[in-house]
Amino acid sequence: MQIAVRRKHDFEPLAGQGPCGGLENCGVKAESAPAISEVIGRVPNRLALAGGWIDQPFVSRRNPEPPGSMVVVSVQPTFRPMDRAGWAGGTRAVAMKLWKGRLPKRPAAELVRQLYAAENRGKAEPSGSQDMIGIIYSGISRLDFDFDANGGVFPVHIESLNQPRIARWLERVLWLLPVEPRPEGYNPLVEKDLDPKWIKRLGRTGKDCFEAICELDLEKLGASLNECMICWEKILPCTVSHPTIKVDLKAILRAYQRRHPGAMYSGCGGGYLIVASKEKVPGAFQISVRLTARAVGTRSTASLPYPEGCPRLIFRESLSQ
Where are the domains of the chain? Predict the structure, then answer.
């Protein structure tokens, strides 16, 4: 079954997308893809890999060697992730409403600014810009954050990989294991130890992760995920341990790290366990990296200066002490 795409020239085509909008390279049967997208929309999902939290100004402001980096992956919308699982679901929901279920065909930086403003208007504790960038920028992207530029809200530099060979490799070695959504009442910021030494190491994990993906190096990729989790536990201990969390996230993490090159959680408080392995992980599934038709085969860089007129939303000072 195929469906007609409305106003097809106004929306961003995906690599492998059929003339009627079916996702032909997304890892699901072609005839089922249109039905899935009709239900959940065509706005991509965002998966964050090593370096998360360096995008938050209260963290990046204490980085002694900026910029610090993190990696995000734009994921084909072939399934609906769990809510409260570190997949930027709230950001995607805003994008779905704002753009009626799919990305407009406009410059990525412009869309990031629009979505950032739409989601965070009036919020004292805004979502990080990495959520918007991971949804909108295709492929695999390294985001470099420096508090002295853009107040640490937007990255000073973005490098994106859209080579099919690299994307297919990452799809083969990443396994996502559903664990549990972060619980209601959970707050990862009740305990903080923002030691510059560990923040520096956190920012390095994003660089190492991106280099590993470029080099198709599974062991290095796994090591970057493991190191990121160590940094999370040091600077924000409640990312994996909190009175509201009833699952032993640390024990589960260690078990998979012992057996495979590396593992990390998709977000604070649980969500999915991301496992880097060449072996099949029982109970886990794999993603399909979103590549846009016009970007396939490219490795591109961009900057995202603070947009004129965009509200300067940063975390309240009480969260940065």
Answer: 11-306+315-319
266 vs 65: CA distance, rounded Å = 25
Pick the CATH number of 11-306+315-319 from 3.40.50, 3.30.420, 1.20.1340, 3.30.230: 3.30.230
Q: Rg (Cα) of the chain, in Å, rounded?
A: 18
Rounded to the nearest 10°, the torsion over CA 279, 280, 282, 285 is: 130
Question: pLDDT band at residue 256, thresholds of 50, 70 and 90?
Answer: very high
Considering the entire predicted model, what is its pTM? 0.85
Token pair for 290: 């979103």
From residue 249, alpha-carbon distances to 92, 113, 216, 265, 313 in Å are: 26, 35, 28, 9, 32
What's the pLDDT tens digit per position in 195-252?
999 999 999 999 999 999 999 999 999 999 999 999 999 999 999 999 999 999 999 9
